[in-house]
Design brief:
Rossmann fold, alpha/beta, Sig_transdc_resp-reg_receiver, transcription regulation, 3 domains, Stage 0 sporulation protein A homolog
Length: 399
């Protein structure tokens, strides 16, 4: 069953789009519209079963939309949203052919689902539920492409996708790479909220971009990739990027340290971009690192790749063939921290990542970051993060 939500208030629009797991209930949220005029244009282009619409909107209100739908012989069901003071408008909507109404202030997931299932049953009984084989086929294609992208962008490069689908969706497309500031996404709940929010923004902008494919992949913790197959100009993609960054900052107080738009000829270019940005981030202790001399960057790279091993000034000086005292001095001059502090900080940040794996024992986490004494590791972790490793893991997975 194919759904269209029409609501001028951004917060309400996104609340309605995320309150239900549409796929789980065999429903497709086709698009989000900001007013009746935009909704009417969508309905003329798309097959829609259910319209959920506000009544008071700019450009074209809900009742005018209902009248227009009646004129074009819309066969689906219309559910209207109202406030307590909208009784006269609701009465007019029901008179014009609205199926049901919901109060905005009391709307719940179960209430909305109940009305949608009732509408579905009525559409099936009247044989008006859309059964477009082409739509089913396209949805199936996009699902396969999404499943492929989900694995590929997370590093499973040996998987294969049908050559026809690759040619249709993954040739000459746009790629948006977004990386949120790590400290802004500090637990699993924030990760889920960020992913869901970006998805909602994408849905609300889908009509403007007019894409053949728009796939959001949550690559890892604070990294996201958006594949967009469209014939539209680059300005539309840049507008989407601005909408995402602005709204995420405004509503979630999360900032992005990287937002990169790249036109790609094939999918491997996406993975190359991701890996390149990750390599850059390995150097970014602070803004000074990019300008560091080559030897310091080499030391940083060596430390990041060998955290489980013994690391000290003597070993690192040999890596770059430098005098120990000289290396120690220039490292501190360029990064405003000692080599030992950098090693300690990097090990603890890596430990935070490893602690998110529930199956990994804390002892094994400690050894994996080069700290053999679990008791010392726990004391050090607690000093840095004001909580024990066990408390951090519990907080991260706390719903």
């Amino acid at each position: 069953m194919r759904i269209l939500i029409v609501e001028d208030e951004y917060i309400t629009r996104n609340f309605l789009s995320s309150i239900i797991n549409w796929e789980e209930h065999d429903m497709i949220l086709v698009s989000l519209a900001k007013d009746g005029l935009e909704a009417l244009n969508i309905i003329k282009k798309e097959n829609i079963d259910i319209v959920i619409t506000d009544l008071k909107m700019p450009k074209m209100d809900g009742n005018t939309l209902i009248k227009n739908l009646k004129e074009i012989k819309f066969k689906g069901k219309i559910i209207v949203l109202s406030n307590y003071d909208d009784f006269s408008s609701v009465k007019e909507a029901m008179k014009n052919g609205a199926y049901e109404y919901l109060l905005k202030v009391t709307i719940s997931k179960n209430e909305l689902l109940e009305i949608l299932e009732k509408a579905r049953a009525d559409l099936i009984n009247s044989n008006k539920l859309i059964k477009d084989n082409n739509i089913v086929e396209i949805s199936s294609e996009k699902l396969k492409v999404n499943e492929y992208l989900e694995m590929y962008l997370k590093g499973e490069v040996n998987i294969i996708i049908d050559s026809n689908l690759e040619e249709k969706y993954l040739r000459n497309f746009n790629f948006l790479y977004l990386r949120a500031v790590t400290t802004d996404v500090e637990n699993s709940e924030k990760e889920k909220k960020l992913s869901s929010f970006i998805s909602n923004v994408i849905n609300s902008c889908a009509l403007d971009v007019n894409s053949k494919l728009m796939s959001l992949i949550h690559i890892r913790r604070n990294e996201f990739g958006i594949i967009i197959k469209t014939d539209n100009k680059i300005d539309d993609i840049n507008l989407l990027a601005r909408n995402i960054t602005r709204n995420v900052k405004q509503y979630l107080n999360i900032k992005f340290e990287k937002v990169i738009h790249k036109q790609c000829k094939e999918i491997k270019e996406c993975l190359e971009l991701i890996e390149n940005e990750r390599q850059k981030s390995n150097y970014q202790i602070n803004s000074k690192v990019i300008g560091c001399r080559r030897e310091i960057k080499k030391i940083i790279e060596y430390i990041n790749n060998n955290l489980e091993k013994k690391l000290n000034l003597e070993i690192l000086a040999k890596v770059v063939n430098m005098n120990e005292s000289y290396l120690s001095r220039i490292f501190k001059d360029e990064l405003s921290m000692t080599i030992s502090d950098y090693i300690k900080n990097t090990r603890l940040e890596k430990a935070k990542e490893l602690l998110k794996d529930k199956d990994m024992r804390i002892k094994d986490v400690s050894i994996s970051v080069g700290i053999q004494d679990q008791l010392y590791f726990s004391r050090l972790f607690t000093k840095f993060f004001n909580m024990t490793p066990s408390e951090y893991r519990e907080k991260y997975y706390k719903e």
